[in-house]
Design goal:
The protein is of the alpha/beta class. It is built from 8 helices and 5 strands, in the order αββααβαβααβαα. It is globular, with a radius of gyration of 15 Å.
Length: about 160
């Protein structure tokens, strides 16, 4: 998780800071397969959340639909779309940092906990979190991120 936080924090030094990062890690070895950031605005794709992007990239890299044997680490608790994608991919485990409530202080969120999404499915996935919550929440409160959030919220929706 610390490596993911550092990876995500690097975006705070760019023109497009993002507090949402995700990584896919082999459950047994702990070896990182890949990392991804949220890319919604850059791709003009509301589904381009960090978790969904990481899962898409991982299944393409492995050339298989199943991510059994892998764990998803994410800087924020997965939204229902991201948690559903994790379940469909067959991930062993999801480990998250900041909570949906933390994210909702800065961004609109669908406030259904990841554990509730998992409990309503017939797919198994261990959910751990919040883990290193303060470190992950600091990604949201970083001054560069806060400036970006103010800029986004000042733009009119079309």
């Amino acid at each position: 998780m610390k490596a993911l936080i550092a990876f995500t924090a690097r975006s705070l030094r760019t023109e497009r800071p993002r507090p949402f990062g995700a990584s896919i890690v082999q459950t047994k070895s702990g070896k990182t397969l890949l990392q991804a950031l949220n890319n919604v605005t850059q791709e003009f794709d509301p589904s381009a959340h960090a978790e969904v992007r990481a899962i898409r990239l991982a299944t393409k890299r492995l050339k298989q639909l199943s991510l059994a044997g892998y764990t998803l680490y994410t800087t924020c608790e997965p939204c229902p779309m991201c948690m559903s994608t994790a379940l469909w991919a067959g991930l062993d485990r999801v480990v998250y940092g900041a909570t949906i409530e933390d994210a909702n202080r800065h961004f609109n969120q669908i406030q259904i906990p990841a554990e509730e999404v998992a409990a309503r499915s017939d797919m198994d996935c261990v959910i751990d979190g919040p883990f290193l919550r303060d470190d992950c929440y600091a990604l949201f409160t970083h001054p560069h991120m806060q400036r970006a959030i103010r800029h986004w919220s000042s733009r009119k929706r079309k």
